Amino acid sequence: MGSLYSEYLSPSKVLEHYNYTKETLDTQEASRQVASTLIIILCCAIVLENLLVLIAVIRNSKFHSAMYLFLGNLAASDLLAGVAFVANTLLSGPVTLRLTPVQWFAREGSAFITLSASVFSLLAIAIERHVAIAKVKLYGSDKSCRMLLLIGASWLISLVLGGLPILGWNCLGHLEACSTVLPLYAKQYVLCVVTIFSVILLAIVALYVRIYCVVRSSHADVAGPQTLALLTTVTIVLGVFILCWLPAFSILLLDYACPVRACPVLYKAHYFFAFATLNSLLNPVIYTWRSRDLRREVLRPLLCWRQAAGIQGRRSGTPGHRLLPLRSSSSLERGTHMPTSPTFLEGNTMV
Fold it and tell me: Is the dihedral of CA 120, 164, 277, 82 positive or negative?
């Protein structure tokens, strides 16, 4: 065991594993540099979007319900996924071969941790929707504490799953057991993680099918348009996640099945993971598209900047901004039966 961990700081181990799996780095291709630049710009947009969602959820007590806390947790995992993918991009290419195994495990493990957190967040949202529909008092008087404990447990499990390779479940010293896509990860570990995620996602889909069946067969107060609208929102989030990550999961399963050097498509796996990152970009768009109040709260910092920049215009007679209560709520708020929040009006026209 001591010899295994002594290899974690070896500067030649990463090169040895990449040479064995014939991983193509394309370090000199201009197209790869352009792609890396675009990915970094994309990830900056991911961080900004999800940061705005997090700020909106944290600072407005209107969004402190179970549903919004879990959506905020999903936004946090998406934000960290953007940061992790930036680090992964900056440390790829020629830099990869200069990493020690412990640095490589940290680079790849961060991505697995954020992916795990996203999957468990989707599971928590599905459970919350089932609890809300079934009228089950799962949380009780100390619901905030229990929700935070659930969120904390999801991150703890994610850290464990993402940290297993650095704790010893890797292929250092066993080249024949190595993954082609992730040359320092054991194939068995990759299969285990993908299987866990797939089972959880299938369970979530089954749970939503059950929820829809309950809603369709229930009285009007349960099966109203508000409840269906909220279910549609979370179902879209789940569907986008599956759509974005299915190609990456498929390439990892192919990696397990293919002998080393037998499947050249595995050398293009980074394109599949780049496509999967779009999920973290689309989630905030879905929240704000489906929730008018959340959209206004997310855009409030930008509107404040616009208001500050328009001081000169107001001096010349341009009407300013004022706050009036909403007359109606959006699908997310109606579905959770929450009070309305103020909205911006410019002059007498709704924004």
Answer: positive
Model pLDDT for residues 150-204, shown as the tens digit of each residue: 899 999 999 999 999 999 899 998 999 999 999 999 999 999 999 999 999 999 9
User: Phi and psi (nearest 5°) for 174?
Assistant: -140, 75
SS3 content of the chain, % helix, strand, coil (to 5): 75, 5, 20
DSSP state of 347: T
CA–CA separation, 194 vs 175, rounded Å? Answer: 21
Q: Is 2 helix (H, G, I), strand (E, B) or coil?
A: helix
- Residue 325 identity (one-letter amino acid): P
Cβ atoms of 14 and 184 within 8 Å: the answer is yes
Dihedral over alpha carbons 29, 33, 39, 45 (to 10 degrees): -160
CB 80, CB 117: distance < 8 Å: yes
Q: Please name every residue paired with 177 in a beta bridge, in sequence order, or none if there are none.
A: none
Q: How far is residue 56's CA from residue 291's CA, in Å, rounded to a whole number? A: 12
Length of the chain: 351
pTM of the model: 0.81
Partners of 186 in beta bridges = 178
